[in-house]
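Figure 2 data, in text form.
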Amino acid sequence: MGYDFVVIDQEHAAFNRESTDHIILACRASGLGCLVRVQNGDPACILSVLDCGADGVLVPHVTTAKKAQEIVSAARYNSGSRGYSPTTRAGNFGSKSIAQHLQDEDARALVIAMIEDPEAVEDISEIVATPGLDGVFIGRGDLTVAYSEVKPGSAPVKAATMRIVEAATAANVAICAMSGSVADADTLADMGVTAFIVASDQTLLRDAAKAQLQDFQNSFLKQRDRTDGL
């Protein structure tokens, strides 16, 4: 449909390594970017999806600069500690030399820290200063709950969002957020957000089903009105 990328959500959805691998294969076959929100920052979780060929990882609940350093290290070869295997999809199933595989993967795989805790907001300047960190994702939903609020547009969440944006912009780190409306995305874009997750598969299915049902109901109501008038 023309989207730039999709996110496979291993944190909240029922995806295992095999089902994730299948989706990554479909994305690569259609030329669609593919990021994986891993369950946590465990190096094994990061290694698994990168070996499958994911273009990058979103790592939840990165609360400190130390954690940011650890997830970057887990995703990098030359400057980190990523486990090596050339026989994966990422290694083109063994057809690359060691040097080429390391170079390609270190240049390709994005590492995005999800900032969704008050502790992370407090430590945001140190987190975005982490060498090798490509971006941050502003988790406004989790921040809403963490600040004991029930609306994403509440004052504490807005203040946290601005603080994250300012720190990331100053550090030249990309900023991503989820936005369910054009108006909200426009506001975020004006602030400096450059990448947007715009819906979940559930939302797309629900909205399409709702719209179709309303179309049919409206059509039949109009038809009955015409029939009653005969």
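Caption note: The longest helix spans residues 201-228.
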